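pasting for ref
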Amino acid sequence: MTAEEWGIPTLHPARQAWGLPGPVRKWGSFKRGERVPTVHFYTDDYKFTRLWHDSSRLVESLPLIAVEPNFSTYAGMSRAEVLWGIYRKRELARFWQDSGIAILVDLNVDPAFRDLSLLGVPEGWNAYATRIHRGVPFEVVEADHAQAVEHSGRPDPFFAVFGGGHSARVACRDRGWPWIPEHRQVVEGRVEAWDEAAQAAAPGPRAGAPRAEAAGRQVTVMLQQQQSQHHPLDCHPPNVEPPSLPRR
Protein backbone atom coordinates (compact mmCIF):
# COMPACT_ATOMS: atom_id res chain seq x y z
CA MET A 1 0.00 0.00 0.00
CA THR A 2 1.36 3.39 -0.99
CA ALA A 3 0.23 6.96 -0.42
CA GLU A 4 -0.12 7.43 -4.18
CA GLU A 5 -2.52 4.49 -4.46
CA TRP A 6 -4.84 6.13 -1.92
CA GLY A 7 -4.36 9.74 -3.01
CA ILE A 8 -2.74 10.70 0.28
CA PRO A 9 -0.69 13.92 -0.09
CA THR A 10 3.07 13.73 0.42
CA LEU A 11 4.56 16.18 2.87
CA HIS A 12 7.33 18.48 1.67
CA PRO A 13 10.62 17.83 3.53
CA ALA A 14 11.62 21.51 3.31
CA ARG A 15 8.72 22.37 5.65
CA GLN A 16 9.47 20.06 8.55
CA ALA A 17 9.90 21.39 12.08
CA TRP A 18 13.26 21.34 13.84
CA GLY A 19 12.28 22.79 17.21
CA LEU A 20 9.43 23.78 19.52
CA PRO A 21 9.42 27.54 19.94
CA GLY A 22 7.19 28.38 22.89
CA PRO A 23 4.68 28.83 24.06
CA VAL A 24 3.35 25.51 22.82
CA ARG A 25 -0.45 25.70 22.88
CA LYS A 26 -3.24 23.19 22.43
CA TRP A 27 -5.78 24.00 19.73
CA GLY A 28 -8.84 25.45 21.40
CA SER A 29 -6.92 26.91 24.36
CA PHE A 30 -6.41 30.31 22.72
CA LYS A 31 -8.57 32.87 20.95
CA ARG A 32 -9.07 32.81 17.22
CA GLY A 33 -6.39 34.90 15.53
CA GLU A 34 -4.14 34.98 18.62
CA ARG A 35 -0.51 34.57 17.60
CA VAL A 36 0.87 31.24 18.84
CA PRO A 37 4.36 29.97 17.87
CA THR A 38 3.60 26.23 18.16
CA VAL A 39 0.19 24.53 18.01
CA HIS A 40 -0.76 20.90 18.66
CA PHE A 41 -4.00 18.94 18.39
CA TYR A 42 -3.75 16.42 21.21
CA THR A 43 -7.30 17.07 22.32
CA ASP A 44 -10.82 15.79 21.61
CA ASP A 45 -11.41 15.34 17.88
CA TYR A 46 -14.57 17.46 17.83
CA LYS A 47 -12.55 20.51 18.85
CA PHE A 48 -10.59 20.55 15.59
CA THR A 49 -12.61 18.62 13.00
CA ARG A 50 -14.07 21.88 11.66
CA LEU A 51 -10.58 22.66 10.36
CA TRP A 52 -11.26 20.07 7.69
CA HIS A 53 -13.82 22.47 6.24
CA ASP A 54 -11.84 25.65 6.98
CA SER A 55 -8.14 24.82 7.17
CA SER A 56 -7.19 28.52 7.03
CA ARG A 57 -8.32 29.03 10.64
CA LEU A 58 -4.95 27.78 11.88
CA VAL A 59 -3.11 30.13 9.52
CA GLU A 60 -4.87 33.09 11.15
CA SER A 61 -2.87 32.46 14.34
CA LEU A 62 0.41 32.78 12.41
CA PRO A 63 2.08 29.71 13.95
CA LEU A 64 5.65 28.82 13.13
CA ILE A 65 5.19 25.14 13.93
CA ALA A 66 2.19 22.80 13.99
CA VAL A 67 1.82 19.17 14.99
CA GLU A 68 -0.41 17.30 12.58
CA PRO A 69 -4.03 16.85 13.74
CA ASN A 70 -4.40 13.68 15.76
CA PHE A 71 -7.56 11.92 14.57
CA SER A 72 -8.30 9.25 17.15
CA THR A 73 -7.70 5.57 16.43
CA TYR A 74 -8.39 2.54 18.56
CA ALA A 75 -8.18 -1.25 18.44
CA GLY A 76 -11.06 -2.72 16.44
CA MET A 77 -11.45 0.36 14.24
CA SER A 78 -11.77 -0.41 10.52
CA ARG A 79 -8.70 0.26 8.40
CA ALA A 80 -10.89 2.36 6.12
CA GLU A 81 -11.69 4.72 9.03
CA VAL A 82 -8.02 4.90 9.97
CA LEU A 83 -7.03 5.71 6.38
CA TRP A 84 -9.62 8.49 6.34
CA GLY A 85 -7.95 10.01 9.39
CA ILE A 86 -4.46 9.61 7.91
CA TYR A 87 -5.61 11.24 4.68
CA ARG A 88 -7.14 14.20 6.52
CA LYS A 89 -4.11 14.85 8.73
CA ARG A 90 -1.75 14.74 5.72
CA GLU A 91 -4.03 16.91 3.60
CA LEU A 92 -4.30 19.55 6.32
CA ALA A 93 -0.58 19.39 7.08
CA ARG A 94 0.33 19.83 3.41
CA PHE A 95 -2.01 22.81 3.09
CA TRP A 96 -0.39 24.41 6.14
CA GLN A 97 3.05 23.67 4.71
CA ASP A 98 2.01 25.49 1.54
CA SER A 99 1.11 28.42 3.82
CA GLY A 100 4.62 28.38 5.32
CA ILE A 101 3.99 26.44 8.55
CA ALA A 102 6.58 23.83 9.53
CA ILE A 103 5.16 20.43 10.51
CA LEU A 104 5.76 17.77 13.14
CA VAL A 105 4.40 14.39 11.99
CA ASP A 106 1.99 12.79 14.46
CA LEU A 107 2.81 9.17 15.36
CA ASN A 108 0.05 8.71 17.94
CA VAL A 109 -1.81 5.93 16.11
CA ASP A 110 -3.06 2.71 17.66
CA PRO A 111 -0.25 0.11 17.35
CA ALA A 112 -2.54 -2.10 15.25
CA PHE A 113 -2.31 0.51 12.47
CA ARG A 114 1.33 1.49 12.74
CA ASP A 115 1.89 0.33 9.16
CA LEU A 116 -0.43 3.11 7.95
CA SER A 117 0.79 5.97 10.11
CA LEU A 118 3.57 7.22 7.80
CA LEU A 119 1.76 7.11 4.46
CA GLY A 120 2.61 10.38 2.74
CA VAL A 121 5.66 11.07 4.92
CA PRO A 122 8.85 10.96 2.81
CA GLU A 123 11.72 8.78 3.97
CA GLY A 124 14.33 10.83 5.80
CA TRP A 125 11.71 12.95 7.59
CA ASN A 126 13.21 14.10 10.88
CA ALA A 127 10.45 15.76 12.96
CA TYR A 128 7.93 13.72 14.95
CA ALA A 129 5.54 13.96 17.88
CA THR A 130 3.42 11.56 19.87
CA ARG A 131 1.19 11.56 22.92
CA ILE A 132 1.08 9.30 25.96
CA HIS A 133 -1.98 8.93 28.15
CA ARG A 134 -1.82 8.01 31.82
CA GLY A 135 -1.84 4.27 32.22
CA VAL A 136 -0.36 3.58 28.78
CA PRO A 137 2.97 1.70 28.99
CA PHE A 138 5.94 3.83 28.01
CA GLU A 139 6.95 0.99 25.68
CA VAL A 140 4.32 2.33 23.28
CA VAL A 141 6.19 5.64 23.07
CA GLU A 142 9.47 3.80 22.64
CA ALA A 143 7.94 1.91 19.72
CA ASP A 144 6.89 5.25 18.19
CA HIS A 145 10.44 6.49 18.58
CA ALA A 146 11.82 3.32 16.98
CA GLN A 147 9.53 3.94 14.02
CA ALA A 148 10.78 7.53 13.78
CA VAL A 149 14.40 6.36 13.87
CA GLU A 150 13.80 3.81 11.12
CA HIS A 151 11.91 6.23 8.87
CA SER A 152 14.33 9.12 9.35
CA GLY A 153 17.42 6.98 8.91
CA ARG A 154 19.00 8.78 11.87
CA PRO A 155 19.64 7.65 15.45
CA ASP A 156 18.36 10.92 16.93
CA PRO A 157 15.40 12.37 15.03
CA PHE A 158 13.57 15.27 16.66
CA PHE A 159 10.95 13.46 18.74
CA ALA A 160 8.60 15.32 21.08
CA VAL A 161 6.32 13.62 23.61
CA PHE A 162 3.11 15.25 24.80
CA GLY A 163 1.29 14.37 28.01
CA GLY A 164 1.65 11.68 30.62
CA GLY A 165 2.61 12.07 34.25
CA HIS A 166 5.84 12.36 36.19
CA SER A 167 7.17 9.00 35.03
CA ALA A 168 6.78 10.02 31.40
CA ARG A 169 8.53 13.30 32.11
CA VAL A 170 11.49 11.52 33.71
CA ALA A 171 11.68 8.91 30.96
CA CYS A 172 11.77 11.61 28.29
CA ARG A 173 14.39 13.60 30.17
CA ASP A 174 16.61 10.51 30.46
CA ARG A 175 16.34 9.92 26.72
CA GLY A 176 16.83 13.55 25.73
CA TRP A 177 13.33 13.88 24.25
CA PRO A 178 11.33 17.09 24.65
CA TRP A 179 8.37 16.54 26.99
CA ILE A 180 5.38 18.87 26.80
CA PRO A 181 2.85 18.67 29.66
CA GLU A 182 -0.89 18.50 29.25
CA HIS A 183 -2.57 21.90 29.07
CA ARG A 184 -4.56 21.10 32.21
CA GLN A 185 -1.39 20.31 34.16
CA VAL A 186 -0.05 23.78 33.34
CA VAL A 187 -3.32 25.59 34.09
CA GLU A 188 -3.58 23.85 37.48
CA GLY A 189 -0.01 24.84 38.29
CA ARG A 190 1.24 21.27 38.66
CA VAL A 191 4.03 21.75 36.10
CA GLU A 192 5.56 24.64 34.22
CA ALA A 193 4.79 25.20 30.56
CA TRP A 194 7.25 23.95 27.96
CA ASP A 195 10.39 26.06 27.73
CA GLU A 196 12.77 25.01 24.97
CA ALA A 197 15.77 26.86 26.40
CA ALA A 198 15.26 25.45 29.90
CA GLN A 199 14.78 21.94 28.53
CA ALA A 200 18.02 22.16 26.56
CA ALA A 201 19.91 23.28 29.65
CA ALA A 202 18.38 20.69 32.02
CA PRO A 203 20.85 18.27 33.66
CA GLY A 204 20.68 14.53 33.21
CA PRO A 205 21.42 11.88 30.57
CA ARG A 206 20.67 13.12 27.07
CA ALA A 207 21.96 10.36 24.83
CA GLY A 208 21.72 11.25 21.17
CA ALA A 209 20.11 14.60 21.90
CA PRO A 210 22.77 17.33 21.44
CA ARG A 211 22.64 17.46 17.64
CA ALA A 212 18.85 17.52 17.52
CA GLU A 213 18.67 20.14 20.27
CA ALA A 214 21.30 22.32 18.62
CA ALA A 215 19.38 22.17 15.35
CA GLY A 216 16.17 22.99 17.17
CA ARG A 217 17.71 26.00 18.93
CA GLN A 218 19.24 27.23 15.66
CA VAL A 219 15.89 27.10 13.90
CA THR A 220 14.05 28.66 16.84
CA VAL A 221 16.40 31.64 16.84
CA MET A 222 16.01 31.95 13.09
CA LEU A 223 12.22 31.81 13.32
CA GLN A 224 12.14 34.39 16.10
CA GLN A 225 14.30 36.74 14.04
CA GLN A 226 12.01 36.31 11.06
CA GLN A 227 8.98 36.88 13.27
CA SER A 228 10.36 40.24 14.33
CA GLN A 229 11.39 41.30 10.82
CA HIS A 230 8.96 39.60 8.46
CA HIS A 231 5.71 37.72 8.34
CA PRO A 232 6.36 34.57 10.42
CA LEU A 233 4.96 32.32 7.72
CA ASP A 234 8.05 33.06 5.61
CA CYS A 235 10.10 30.66 7.74
CA HIS A 236 11.86 27.52 6.51
CA PRO A 237 14.55 25.21 7.95
CA PRO A 238 18.17 26.37 7.63
CA ASN A 239 20.20 25.46 4.54
CA VAL A 240 17.01 24.48 2.71
CA GLU A 241 15.59 26.64 -0.04
CA PRO A 242 11.87 27.27 0.45
CA PRO A 243 9.94 25.39 -2.24
CA SER A 244 7.78 27.08 -4.83
CA LEU A 245 4.56 25.32 -3.90
CA PRO A 246 1.19 26.01 -5.49
CA ARG A 247 -1.49 27.35 -3.20
CA ARG A 248 -4.60 25.20 -3.15
